[in-house]
Every structure is written in C-alpha cells, then in structure tokens.
Amino acid sequence: MEKVAIPQAVADEVKRTLPELPSWIPIRRLSRTIPSTIARRSLGAGESEAMALALELRIPRVILDDLTARTFGRALGLEVVGTGAVLYLAKMRGLVPAVRPLLDALLATGFRLSPKVYLTLLRAAGEAE
Asked: How far is it, in rounded angstroms, from Cα 19 to Cα 109?
C-alpha cells in the first residue's frame, strides 16, 4: 500500500485549518536544503518542500494542487496528484468514511476546486446525489 508523508511546511499550512493532522499522515523533515532549481521558483513553502522531499526521498509521486507547482513538478519528472485524488484513495482504502465532508471542509477554508472536479470525485466515491 502506498503511504503519504508531508513536509513541515505543508503540516503548518494544514494546521491552520484543521485542529490536528490525521494519524495516518506522518511529517517528514527535509535533510537537505531545498534545491536551487525549486527555490528560484515563485512557489509557496508547502509546494517547494513537497517537491524537494519527493526528490530527496526518491518518491515518484507528489501531491500538489497549485497549477504552477503542478506544471513544475511534472517538469521535474514527478507524477503529480491532487488532494482530491488522495481523499478518494483514502476512502477506497477505508481510512476515511466519506470524501464529501472533507472536500466541503476544504472548500470552506478557501481551497479551490472546480465544480467539475468536485462532482467527478463525488461520483467516483459513490457520493454524488
């Protein structure tokens, strides 16, 4: 089974909207500085650390939602997935009971997700009305 790990900057971002991280998401610290190829980009700390951690740990997949970060992640040779896909997989693996309340909570905090992607995720998860 695939596992999820997040860098400290992502944990800090998540903690602004959630009281605590789910127990199945460990925080991994970078052991090196962010490579200059990433640091030179106009990306948020979370996106930069996520890509740096993926490269450092030689993990081929990274979770990115920002379009600029997604494009750059792919240019670095990383497979990019979004938060919605992670929530869907978490439901399929029995880690969360439903996707809809999690997506709705994210949207309430300002998370951007197109209505089309929202509906696609709900349909895939068997939660569309």
From this structure: 13
What percentage of the chain has pLDDT greater than the value 70? 98
Residue for token pair 């809809």? 100
Cβ proximity of 9 and 29 under 8 Å: no
Mean pLDDT for the chain? 91
Check residue 96 and report its DSSP letter: S
Residue 38 is encoded by which pair of tokens? 């990433």
Residue 5 in this model has a pLDDT that exceeds 90? no
Confidence (pTM):
0.82
CB 114 within 8 A of CB 103: no
Q: Using alpha carbons, list the distances in angstroms from residue 100 to 29, 82, 83, 117, 128.
A: 30, 15, 13, 12, 9
- Give CA–CA dist 89/79, Å, rounded: 16
